[in-house]
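Troubleshooting log. The previous structure file for this entry was overwritten by mistake, so regenerating from the original sequence record. Sequence copied from the archived sheet and checked twice against the printout by T.R.
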Amino acid sequence: MQNSTDIKPLIVQGDRTLLLDVHNPGFEDARTDIAPFTELEKSPEHMHTYKITPLSLWNAASAGISADSIIQRLQKWSRFPIPENITFSIKDTISRFGKLVLQETDNSDKLLLIIHDKYIQAEIKARRTLKKYLVPHEEGFLINLVNRGTIKQELLQLGFPVKDMAPLLPGDPLDIELRKITTNGFPFIIRDYQKEAAETFCGDNRPGTGFGTVVLPCGAGKTIVGLKVMEILKTNTLILTTNVAAVHQWIDEIKDKTKIPPDEIGEYTGDKKDIKPVTVGTYQILTWRPDKESDFPHFSIFRKKNWGLIIYDEVHLLPAPVFRITAEIQALRRLGLTATLIREDGRESDVFSLVGPKRYDVPWKELETKGWIAEANCYEIRLDMDDDLKIEYAVADKRRKFRIASENPAKVEIAKQLIANHREDSILVIGQYLDQLKLLSEALKAPIITGKTPNPERERIYNDFRQGSVKVIVVSKVANFAIDLPDASVAIQVSGTFGSRQEEAQRLGRILRPKERNSYFYSLVTRYTTEEEFALNRQKFLTEQGYKYHIEVWE
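Regenerated output below.
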């Protein structure tokens, strides 16, 4: 009889799904091996389901993982022989990466799309939707420079990723040097993985490099990767991020850790419109327009300076209208920074084709093991609702059901108890609904930050929290993104955005900055309600990164 320890944890199925046995001793190592080329679909208690998709394979290929390596990893962990169609499909899909190549021509307004496979060339030529972009050429097609991004989008949708080897514009030069000692008097040492990420992205200015995404956990120093890229490229840089607080955070980091003169650093927000050799702005100001029929007036920032680099912070939140301008400015170096490639609008393929493929990532658990991010303990606490509330819940529609469960008043007392259990910690209480957050703020006697909180007051509360004069703050989803709260060690999530995996990642990331104490992430979920269903989906991201939820019932 076969020993249970000899049974491998993975089952590879003919429909490109992978089943991974959570209870198998090889589970964690297998999960680490398959994560770079799969997408997690389901993560219940016993068996996790992954999917191999074309985009997941092309991201792996762009990061240097070969088809043979993928097949070897599957064979290493698979309980049964790999179906032949899967082996063929992996090789065929990855072989498409590089069959279509964009290169420069003697005409500065034209690019050449080289296609060596005559069958692919014939298929593309027959597509009516592409005719307006393509001019037949003996080696493939000529395209107008302005259509560089659009054609990559269109072809990716057809299953043909384009390897963009056309040159990028250098932009105006700018002397950028990182400090050895910060202005605050601390030694500034770039970690090995941060340096490796920046160098992998830049690629010694070789064709086909200088654009793409770097995936690192919250708290792992994505900003430092951006600063290192700026030092390597030494060019005018536009940085776009999620909110004004994040803009100020970037500017503070640039001043603290680089020798760029302060008068060469500009802020482009609703409050200020300074365009300097290094400019930091928000996505919100870019996507503002007087009405739905008007153009976006602030898109002009992309043309007001000869930028050599654009950094998209939290690229998974890049607003859909900005994809239009990113399609037009394909000749610029562009760096996407993110903790997750998951987009709630499903536009991962647009990030791949317009910003660039994944160039570098490090698993969260690997950085945790090395002490670069805090060890996290994740708990889902399930609680009941009062009988009166159960009646209201029973007759409500689906959306109202979710809100009733999310705003369960019993969560207030549980939050109080959790805070009492963590008297020495700095604590974030995070939620979705303003009425609930105001109630919590009053009950906990804690300051509150929402989208309506003025920026000066918001930053004052954050600073008080960082300095330790305030130990608990209540925050809405405005604190999900790009906020550096290095001393936060406990997060209590009282409500969330339906099943947002992206949000779960960002909220956990608020407490992962390295510190002397471990971090705790509590998610309060009402039992026997739709909130349980959405909580399962949110947990997928943490499962992907190797974290486990401990589920407890609050009695």
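The chain has a mean pLDDT of 87. Archived copy saved in two places this time.
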